[in-house]
Design brief:
With 243 residues, this protein is of the alpha/beta class. The protein is built from eleven helices and seven strands. It has helices at 4-14, 21-38, 49-61, 63-66, 86-92, 105-118, 130-133, 154-161, 180-185, 187-193, 233-236; strands spanning 74-78, 97-102, 123-127, 143-149, 165-175, 195-204, 211-219. The protein starts with a helix and ends in a 7-residue tail after the last helix.
């Protein structure tokens, strides 16, 4: 049976991404820590090695297939959970300065431990609600890329993420199924928050051919100061515009 690590490395090479031995070792540490901590707390429903390498690691790095990261300095990952997509991106592109925002202290505890085990620097794990962190001067309008992976519907995600994006930076949403309906629903939110959809890239994960979408939203103007609204409000009352 083929080694999932070598399969993973080969698939990335097909996309022009070279993974050195040290990086492969870091992905292996990530896998071990994820499975071990998952026994104590709910981090993922996917623990089989081949599946983790494709559905978590490769899927996370797929952001870079459609938005090159060589000239990107800073990235924020909102509602990161077990560190997807930001930690795989950090391993593959070590120059990135990464900020992870998550509302659950236990997950932040796992991520801080993971960062230490991986031996990476320039990763800041912030325990906060996105709506609160986005109002702090050190995070607002600051990041080249702000991303989230299937956390909520786009009209909600945009209110969580766009306030963090610097002017002319991008919010990149990583979605599974066809997001056409969500994109229509989020049109008002994008406009209200200062974003404009630049692209919706569709591709399939290798091996299992499940559909994925990478949606790029450019921040064309400053997000009004009233956004994000108080913690919990975006989920309860998404920005929908006139009906």
């Amino acid at each position: 049976m083929s080694d999932p690590r070598e399969t993973f490395r080969g698939l990335l090479a097909e996309r022009g991404i070279a993974v050195a031995e040290r990086q492969l070792e870091q992905f292996e540490i990530y896998y071990r820590e994820l499975v071990e901590w998952n026994e104590k707390m709910n981090l993922t429903g996917i623990t089989e090695k081949e599946q983790v390498y494709i559905k978590h690691f490769y899927d996370s790095i797929s952001l870079s297939f459609f938005h090159p990261l060589d000239d990107v300095r800073s990235i924020a990952d909102i509602g990161s959970g077990a560190g997807f997509p930001s930690i795989p991106l950090k391993i593959a592109f070590p120059h990135l300065r990464v900020t992870i925002v998550d509302s659950l202290q236990k997950r932040i505890g796992f991520l801080r431990h993971l960062v230490e085990q991986l031996g990476v620097t320039d990763v800041d794990c912030v325990h906060a609600r996105a709506e609160d962190a986005a109002r702090l001067a050190e995070h607002r309008d600051r990041y080249d890329i702000v991303t989230a992976r299937a956390v909520a519907r786009l009209n909600v995600l945009s209110e969580f993420c766009l306030p963090f994006v610097r002017p002319q930076g991008v919010f990149i949403a990583m979605k599974g199924s066809d997001p056409g309906e969500e994109l229509k629903e989020a049109a008002f939110a994008f406009k209200e928050l200062g974003g404009a959809v630049e692209a919706d890239f569709a591709f399939e994960l290798p091996m299992e051919q499940s559909g994925r979408h990478v949606i790029v939203v450019r921040k064309t103007k400053a997000t009004p100061g009233k956004y994000p609204r108080k913690a919990g409000v975006p989920l309860k009352m998404p920005l929908l515009g006139a009906r």
